[in-house]
Amino acid sequence: MIKAKYILFLLFIFSFFNINNLYAKKIEILYKVENYPITNKDITKEISYLIMLNKELKKIDERELVQYATKSIIKEKVKKNEILKNFQFGGNENLVQSQLNSLRNNLNLNQNEFESLLNSLDISEKYLNEKIEIELLWNKLIYTIYKDKLVINEIEIKNKLKEDLENPSNFLEEYLLYEILFTPSQKTDLDSNKFKIEKSIREIGFENTANVLSEAPSSKLGGKIGWVKENQLTKEVLNSIKNLEIGDFTNPLNVPGGQLFLLLKDKRKSKLDLSFDEEYKKIISAEQNRQLGQYSLIYYKKTELNTKIYDN
């Protein structure tokens, strides 16, 4: 049986936002992304999915939540349209299942509870599988296009890691980070975007602002990046956060594809228990993912501009 607290939470969410009555009873097409229609029911289901991922969305104004869900589903359709120019869906069952299991574990539910939750939200596993596969294939596409453009200074990383491991204390700072990424359409929009985001942070908090305004994939999780060791951060980022008080955020940092706010949620000392090779692989992987993430944002913006999106 699904956990009572989670059911109560969902009932509260749906009564608060009155999701089932957000749109007319009949199905209406609100947008089209190339040949993909987006209906009122699609947006309602997207809201259910987003709330399942992040309960903090209950704090967001109903209109902002609808706008956020609409932006989210349009982005997904843009990605799907581009993916189909390069790959076919299917053949990723094991990876999809692994991601689905991770989602279930993050929600702290067993399989029966998870299935009950999906039924209560009118979300099928097939629906979730497609969402997961879209992200997997999009990441594959980005890697295929940009893998030869990744720039990683392996010598510098090895020398720094060796220094860290030989340090008698053998401890590093580790930071719990959240992000808000925005991409101004013009340089003149920088100040207005910065003001808008800072105003929103003051009014509804950093995480809720990330939900509705950030363009990073982490927006679905309130901008959460997670715990990151100092040797996995660029010098610019480390210099920007190392002197922050917990709960403070940086001025916007210039990154490929936009401007980035970082929130320092917490910090701790982390012991280097791994071998040189294991720690080295983790640092290289983190740097590759950082660069690929930036390329992903740039490529998406380019793709979106070349995609026909109709507002019915």
Order of the strands making up the biggest sheet? 4-3-6-5
Distance between the termini: 42 Å
Number of strands: 7
How does the major sheet shape up?
4 strands, antiparallel
List keywords for this structure.
globular; alpha+beta; 11 helices; 7 strands; Chitinase A, domain 3; single chain; Triger factor/SurA peptide-binding fold
Structure description:
The chain is an alpha+beta fold. The protein has 2 domains: 4-145, Triger factor/SurA peptide-binding fold (Orthogonal Bundle); 154-305, Chitinase A, domain 3, CATH 3.10.50.40. Helices cover 54% and strands 15% of the residues. Strands 4-3-6-5 form a 4-stranded antiparallel sheet, with helices on both faces. Strands 2-1-7 form a 3-stranded antiparallel sheet. Helix 4 (93-106) packs across helix 6, helix 6 crosses helix 11 and helix 8 (190-204) packs across helix 9 (206-213).
Could you give the topology of this structure?
Blueprint: H1 4-17, E1 29-33, E2 36-39, H2 40-53, H3 62-83, H4 93-106, H5 111-120, H6 125-146, H7 154-166, E3 171-182, H8 190-204, H9 206-213, E4 224-229, H10 235-241, E5 253-255, E6 258-271, H11 276-305, E7 309-311
Antiparallel strand pairs: 1-2, 1-7, 3-4, 3-6, 5-6
